[in-house]
Amino acid sequence: MIENPKGPLPRMSALRAFEAAARHGSFTGAAEELGIQQPAVSRLIAELERELKVRVFERSHRAVVLSPAGEALYHPVISGLHRIAAGALSAASVAEDRRVIVACGHATSHLFMMPRFGAVRRALGDNVCLRILTVDFELLDRLGDNEVDLIVAFHQDAGAAEDRVAVFQEAVMPVCSPEFAATHARVLARPVQEWAGLPFLRLARPSFWATWPEWFESVGYPSPRPRYVGIKDYVYLLEAAAAGEGLALGWRYLVDRYLDMGTLVPVAEDYVEFDRTCFAKLTERGRRRPDARRCLDALGALANGVALASERARDVVAR
Description:
By secondary structure, the chain is an alpha/beta fold. The protein has helices at 12-24, 27-34, 38-52, 68-93, 106-113, 117-124, 178-183, 185-188, 212-218, 234-242, 256-261, 284-287, 290-318, and strands at 2-4, 7-9, 57-59, 64-66, 99-104, 129-134, 150-154, 164-176, 199-203, 227-231, 248-251, 265-266, 272-282. Strands 5, 6, 7, 8, 11, 12 and 13 form a 7-stranded mixed beta sheet that branches. A two-stranded antiparallel sheet has the order 1-2. A two-stranded antiparallel sheet has the order 3-4.
């Protein structure tokens, strides 16, 4: 049995046997429909009852009828099986050549692509299935050219101009939780080189992304040699910052939702831009497929929407 947050989830074979037996009022009828032996149906029902710790059938010599617990289970099972069957038909109707797979790292997937998923999917149309494949950052450039259609990341080599679009330019600023900002307001009001006593959250692995020393240099201060707290994943790093664990570098277009909700606030006047660009680029497989190129065009069109997000973020900074 698989456990999920909402309760027990019995095996599909047990649920199918339960539904068929309830409909036929007979384990024998269920066995004939399912193409198995009657003892096998009995074993599946017994397994279901052990997992639920309740009897789902009242048994007699002539027939089986649902118990009160079985009645409570029957209609949700019927509904679930119908929905699964409909989903299977829908999935089967999507031809492989109408499926576009976009690969990106966890942070880009969670913070940039998923908020824009609906807009890209609508641009592709109902006949194209859009799939976002989240891949560990170090593995992105190791993906085979025929495994995915597009890769969205900070690329060292973004490929030919006709096969890529600039999604956004890298720009960062320090952020923290409102509570952290209030607690350390006196320190944060001082010059940056006096922030050394505060905890600084940083990525605990190499990446192409900007670092704290780069930000210190960009604002004209030597690095204050702070106490760094390493966190492997950027999404978790932002969550730690929102929980008041320290200062974080907030990437424009990735941190917007946190700023909009007020769970993070800026501690600098504006973003500092770096000479790195997040690109969406077609793989060899994507270059052969018109739907993948349409997806690339849709991501390029979103660049105008990104500019709007930039203005919104500046308004947050101004406030």
